[in-house]
Amino acid sequence: MNNGIPVKTIAERLGNTPEMIHTVYGHILQEMEVQAVNVFSQSLKESGASS
Known about the structure:
The longest helix is centred in the middle third of the chain and has 30 residues, at 18-47. By secondary structure, the chain is mainly α. The chain has 2 helices and no strands. The radius of gyration is 15 Å and the shape is elongated.
């Protein structure tokens, strides 16, 4: 998931449902969300935008 592979694809390869993947690996998705916010915020700062 950290490499941009869709959850549905991972679930199909493992023989699970997307819901199962979210249940077991949901903490990874939360970490990715925090990382995305940080990257976006940093790019806004670098461009001189104000929040």
